[in-house]
Amino acid sequence: MTRRLIAAAAQMGPISRSETRESCVRRMIEMMREAAAKGARFIVFPELALTSFFPRWIIDDQAERDQWYEEQMPNPAVKPLFDMAAKLGVGFNLGYAEKTQEDGATRYFNTAILVDANGKICGKYRKVHLPGHKEPQPGRRHQHLEKRYFEQGNLGFPVTPMMDCRMGMLICNDRRWPEGWRVLALQAAELVCLGYNTPNDHSGFPEVDALADFHHVLSMQSGSYLNSVWSIATAKCGNEEGSSMIGNSVIVAPSGEVIAQSQTLEDEVICADMDLDMATQYRQTFFDFARHRAPECYGLITHRKGASPDPDDS
Ligand code: CDT
User: Fold this and answer.
1) Could you confirm whether 47 is annotated as catalytic?
2) Does residue 256's CB lie within 6 angstroms of at least one atom of ligand 1?
3) Atom 10 of ligand 1 has which residue's CA nearest to it?
4) How would CATH label the architecture of 4-313?
5) What is the pTM of this model?
6) Confidence band of 141 (pLDDT split at 50, 70, 90)
7) According to the model, what pLDDT value does residue 152 have?
C-alpha cells in the first residue's frame, strides 16, 4: 500500500511591527482550518511566524530585543494553535525566535519545531546557515542582522519520524546550502520542511534582487531532486514594514517537479497529496547513495570552510 500524506504550506502575508502573537496565531488557526477542510494532515508555517522579521532593525536595548523571542513553547499566546492542531488531528512545522537557558548562559536561536497530530512537540531544529551581518551596515535601508540576534544552531540536522513520514527541517537560507539537504537525505528523510523570509529589495545588487524568486524555487527544486525528497517551502511575504519579501511558497516532489505554488503575497494555503514512496524510485536508481556515492573523495566538504586555490589550506 502506498503511503500518502496530504500536506499544506500556510503562507503568511506581512506581519507588522505592532501585530501581536495572538493575532498571528489567529491567522494561522484560520489557515489550519482551511487546510484541514481540504484534507491536509500536516502544515508548514513560515520562519519566525509569530512576529515581524525583526532582524531588519537595529535594536540595542536588551529588554526591547528580548521581546521578540519565545521563552516557552507553547506559551499562552501560541497554545491555541497546538489545541486546534490536536482537535483537527493535523501536525505542523512552526518557526520562531527562541530564547533559552543552556550551558549556564542565555542563548538565542532561529528555531523550528515539529508538532504531531496530538499537539505534542516531536522535533526541534535550530538554523545553521545564518545570513547577513553581526554589525549594522551603514547606508542600508534595511539591515539583515541574523548573525547579531541568533547564534548558529547546535542541534545538527535531525530527522524526526512523525505521521508515518521521516521529516527533516531547514530554515530559509539553509535551502541554498547543499550540505544540510544531504545530511538529511543520508538519514533517509522523506520530507524537508522549510519556512522563509526572503527580501528582494536590499542585496545592493538589483540584478540579484530580480532573481530572488527564481533562486528560491531553483534551490527547492534542486534540493528535492538531488536528494530524492519531498519538500515544502512556506513564505512570509509581501510588503512588511517597507521591506518587500518574495512569496512563491512551493511543494516539490522528489522528481524536482513543483506540485503546488502560491499565487499571492498574502495569507494563502496550498496543498499537495504526497506519495511518500515516490522517493524510493529515485533512491534505487540515479540516487542510490550506497551504490554511487564516494565519501572518501569528499573530505574537503567537512575540512575546508572557504574556497581556496591552495591545496595546503586547511
Ligand atoms: N531569512 C533568511 O534567511 N533570508 C535569506 C536572505 C538574506 S539576505 C541578506 C535567504 O536566504 O532567503
Assistant:
1) yes
2) no
3) 173
4) 4-Layer Sandwich (3.60)
5) 0.98
6) confident
7) 98
